[in-house]
Amino acid sequence: MLLLEQVLEKYPNEVKFVHKNFPLRNHKYAEKAAAAALAADKQGKFWEFYGWLFKNSSRLSDETIQAIACELALNEEQFWKDLQDPDILARISEDVRDGTKAGVRGTPTIFINGRLLRQRSVEAFQDIIGKELEKVRKAKQ
């Protein structure tokens, strides 16, 4: 089970996960892969597509993206049309601006309530989430 899935399972009502795109400039297919996942999202398949991209990250290509779309039984005509949607490209650009402003330099980068998570372990997540939940509890008193 992925680390984030473990955290979300442990805190189903307390934690909200927000994904932002930050395609690295040195990765030839990163921006196209981000756009492809967002195009798949228009058919309700973001996380499935994202998972396949992650598994195939070392061999991304137009062919790989097409194979994933086929594997997920996407409406391919709509998928390729959505892949060119200016709104999707604008969203990716906005995510990159936000990430750059927040100090993101690589992927994945994880923030919890604006705090950069430096250690990626269940314990590190639990520590920061616990502290943030305690702040909320104190603020409600």
Comma- or semicolon-separated keywords:
2 strands, two-stranded antiparallel sheet, elongated, mainly alpha, 141 residues, 3% strand
Describe the overall structure.
The protein has a single domain, classed as Glutaredoxin, CATH 3.40.30. Helices cover 60% and strands 3% of the residues. The protein has 141 residues and is mostly helical. 17% of the residues are buried. The protein has a two-stranded antiparallel ribbon. The model has no long low-confidence stretch (mean pLDDT 92). It is built from seven helices and two strands, in the order ααααααββα.
CATH fold-level assignment: Glutaredoxin
What is the number of independent domains? 1
User: Considering the protein shown, what is the CATH homologous superfamily?
Assistant: Glutaredoxin
Estimate the helix proportion, in percent.
55-70%
Present the secondary structure layout.
Blueprint: H1 3-10, H2 30-41, H3 46-55, H4 62-71, H5 76-83, H6 86-102, E1 111-112, E2 115-116, H7 122-140
Antiparallel strand pairs: 1-2
Task: Give a nutshell description of this structure.
With 141 residues, the protein is mostly helical. The chain contains seven helices and two strands.
